[in-house]
């Protein structure tokens, strides 16, 4: 049976990115993303809205760019894949799990100084961080994988640029 694991999200950051480095020197950024959905409920005759909060992990240069240029409230587009993390809760001993997104491409939306608000236009072709790479389920194996250059892409602006937009 075929399978396909791809997500595309546009939302606003719920907090400033947290950038850490693996023992191999690879940057890892953790982001919180809020994605809104609105609809009209015909039964109650009112507009409804729900917000979904999603954890996103970025690796390598994208993680560094996120840490340098993204702040709470900023609109961002993330392309990536879903990953299920499982662990045993230390306090209760129960099995826990959480679904998160591993970002494979990121695009900052809105202008340079904008704090978000959604619906902004892309900041230009060079703003797309399209370095795509595969990963593995565990961070240890992912760390050794990311010690080598990512497969594919680079920035769509053609060449390395210091400023990603």
The CATH class: Mainly Beta
The arrangement of helices and strands along the chain is EEEEHEEEH
- Shape assignment: globular
Strand tally: 7
Uncertain residue ranges? 116-160
* Structural class by secondary-structure content: mainly beta
Sheet bearing the most strands, described?
5 strands, mixed, barrel
CATH architecture: Beta Barrel
InterPro entries: NA-bd_OB-fold, Primosome_PriB/ssb, ssDNA-bd
Protein name: Single-stranded DNA-binding protein
Keywords: DNA-binding
Subunit structure: Homotetramer.
Note the main attributes of this structure.
single chain; 165 residues; mainly beta; OB fold (Dihydrolipoamide Acetyltransferase, E2P); 5-stranded mixed beta barrel
């Amino acid at each position: 049976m075929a399978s396909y694991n791809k997500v595309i999200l546009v939302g606003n950051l719920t907090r400033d990115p947290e950038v850490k480095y693996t023992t191999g020197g690879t940057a890892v950024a953790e982001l919180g993303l809020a994605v809104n959905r609105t609809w009209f409920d015909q039964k109650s005759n009112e507009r409804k809205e729900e917000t979904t909060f999603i954890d996103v992990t970025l690796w390598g240069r994208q993680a560094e760019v996120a840490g340098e240029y993204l702040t709470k409230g900023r609109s961002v587009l993330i392309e990536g894949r879903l990953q299920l993390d499982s662990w045993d809760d230390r306090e209760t001993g129960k099995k826990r799990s959480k679904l998160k997104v591993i970002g494979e491409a990121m695009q900052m939306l809105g202008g340079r100084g904008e704090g978000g608000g959604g619906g902004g236009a892309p900041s230009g072709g060079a703003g797309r961080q399209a370095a795509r790479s595969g990963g593995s389920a565990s961070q240890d194996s992912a760390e050794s994988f990311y010690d080598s250059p990512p497969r594919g892409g680079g920035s769509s602006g053609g060449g390395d640029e210091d400023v990603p937009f």
